[in-house]
Design brief:
Blueprint lengths: L9 E2 L2 E9 L5 E7 L4 E5 H5 L8 H11 L3 H4 L6 H14 L6 H4 L13 H8 L7 E4 L11 E4 L1 H5 L7 E4 L2 E4 H8 L3 H9 L18 H5 L1
Antiparallel strand pairs: 1-2, 2-3, 3-4, 5-6, 7-8
């Protein structure tokens, strides 16, 4: 099995410092520094698969958070709509057994440390409007106050890792959003992208066919 050097790489809150003990290329341990300041030794496979994201501090923080009465609990509403959205965010980023873990844990998407507390999350985001979901403005960014918003289904569909974005006049939007706003066919723009058009011309309205000179003279 080919040796993969993980020195200097980051996995969740862990930064790999150096190679530790080993019993062969399949069982290499790596000494890592956690963001909380602790040092721990982790199996390489657990780092690459996203099974180990911290020295154990994340699990402790989640246990504390779950045992602490948040604002909704004080009102006797333990399973509010907003709380469910918060739980989903935590699960996506820290539970490797979720169906789409590769889209979050596999890409290094994490949650702001303060948001491991539901109280802090609620204070920053407010209650989730019914019918909306928690979305990240930058799909490659982490869950934090500056990068999150409550989104409609339309916004969710147009903000995925497969979405094509176009920058125009300093404003970045998805291809579908620009097409809807300008009133141009999505297929037309896709053809232009495939043909290598400059980004500044991708959203130009197609010119209508002009009559030739012979037809005008008739």
């Amino acid at each position: 099995m080919r040796f993969i050097d993980l020195t200097g790489k980051r996995f969740g809150r862990l930064t790999v410092l150096l190679r530790g003990s080993t019993t062969g290329t399949k069982n290499i341990k790596w000494v890592c520094r956690c963001d909380c300041g602790n040092t721990t030794s982790v199996m390489g496979n657990n780092l690459r698969l996203g099974n180990s994201q911290s020295c154990g501090c994340i699990r402790k923080e989640l246990l504390v958070s779950r045992s602490t009465k948040h604002g909704c609990a004080r009102r006797g509403q333990n399973r509010t709509y907003t709380y469910k959205k918060w739980c989903g965010m935590i699960s996506r980023c820290y539970n490797p057994k979720t169906e789409r873990a590769y889209r979050y844990i596999g890409r290094g998407i994490s949650v702001d440390k303060s948001w491991l507390s539901f109280d802090n999350f609620l204070a920053d985001m407010g209650e989730c409007p019914i019918g909306m979901s928690l979305g990240r403005i930058d799909n490659d960014g982490n869950y934090c106050k500056k990068n999150c918003r409550w989104e409609t289904d339309y916004q969710q569909r147009n903000n995925t890792c497969r979405t094509h974005y176009i920058m125009m006049n300093g404003i970045k939007k998805s291809l579908q959003e620009w097409c809807d706003e300008i009133g141009i066919n999505r297929g037309t723009v896709k053809q232009r992208i495939d043909r290598g058009w400059e980004e500044g011309r991708l959203l130009d309205r197609p010119r209508r066919n002009r009559p030739n000179a012979a037809m005008v003279n008739e």
